[in-house]
Amino acid sequence: MHRKIEQYKKNIEHKKINFLSNLLYPPRCPICDRILRLSDSAERGCCPACMETLPWVREPACMKCGKPVGEEGQEYCEDCRKQAHAFDRGTAAFTYTGALRHSVYRMKSENRRDYVPFFAKTMTTALARYLPRWEPEVILPVPMHPGKKRRRGYNQSELLAQEIGRRTGLPVEKELLYCTRAVPSQKTLGRRERLLNLRGSFAVRRGAPAFQRVLLVDDVYTTGSTMDEISRVLRETGVESVFFVVLCTGKGKKAVCTAKKV
Ligand SMILES: [Zn+2]
Ligand SMILES: [Zn+2]
Fold it and tell me: How far is the CA of 233 from the centre of ligand 2 (A)?
């Protein structure tokens, strides 16, 4: 009897906490961070005004890395015309611009994990046309060094991957890839320096299941050096095809932003 009363008290307490947390943390628009109406939260995941201005990557897009390219009929972006990549092909939901850029920063660095479901939904939309052709067997998030993950509390690529896995029904292997060392900041480096900086930073766990076709998930694609280094490591273990989906991609050199209003 006493145990039942205790359980009852606990349940009430749990309900109170949920109620308070909804009051304290109502769902917010991932782009402008305003409080969402319940219907917007359920249907779109962002407010109608922001939905209109999202910088979706539109065709024409690079047939290798998925960056928008300036002109119709141009198959590859400036970057991909100049250098080969170790991955097969990738796609992105958005260009890394404007309010979205700030939003991604908040998701990564200000603990806004509540943005993940909306962003993963947009990435799944970007993926939809490619999945039947790519046929990946597994989703692999780009790993984060354990020290960084401990400080941040989470790896946003892992959270995005899990949500994309839930939406697509594809399995997610969080532990297959790992970081062997902390990578110094890449921000000020060019592509060549980035690749050198990254060399040997990723590895595949011993005894991990073997796959032939994999889909990498990351938040931002810049020069592609991370994707290339991971692809190189994966291919050494027998992976044949490496695809990726990212939330945002840089616009590429001289490429024109093709963001249009939805
Ligand atoms: Zn908004
Ligand atoms: Zn490209």
Answer: 21
